[in-house]
Model the fold of this input.
Amino acid sequence: MSDAVCYRVMQPGEAGAVSALVLSSFDEFIGPELTDEGNAEFRRFVAPEALEARTAEDHFVRVATVDGVLAGMIEIRQNNHVALLFVDKAHQQHGIAKGLLHAALADARAADPDLERVTVNSSRYGVPAYERLGFRQTGPERAVNGIAFIPMARQLDVDL
Done:
């Protein structure tokens, strides 16, 4: 793994590449366990125009690049909810998700210094990764629009 990891805000024109990265991981690790309805709903949510529309409202997206190549992304809603966190398969298990979360939480805390907790609705596949990042399950698995998820939260006084 190269040391040339850069964490930065998603730039204009990058939504297509970010969407493609998300869908690549989703299709391999999460999509197969969802219904057709869930897969269609997720694809609508991560479409480039949907990403751009949300970042114009109350979401922000940070990306990670390795040697200039897109390696991961995180989307935060209202400074307190992880809407998406995906790392390209080739870059998993190298601390990219942890770095993305740190960068995003720094932004969120700058915008809301009183922020005490951040939440996520994790896929089954993502639960172990989120647990390593300090999240804990807060309720039973649910499904909305065909997407199964486990609600989780992380207190921000917990160090990684």
About this structure: The beta strands are 5-9, 59-66, 69-77, 81-87, 117-122, 136-137, 142-144, 147-155. The longest helix spans residues 96-111. The CA atoms of residues 20 and 149 lie 22 Å apart.
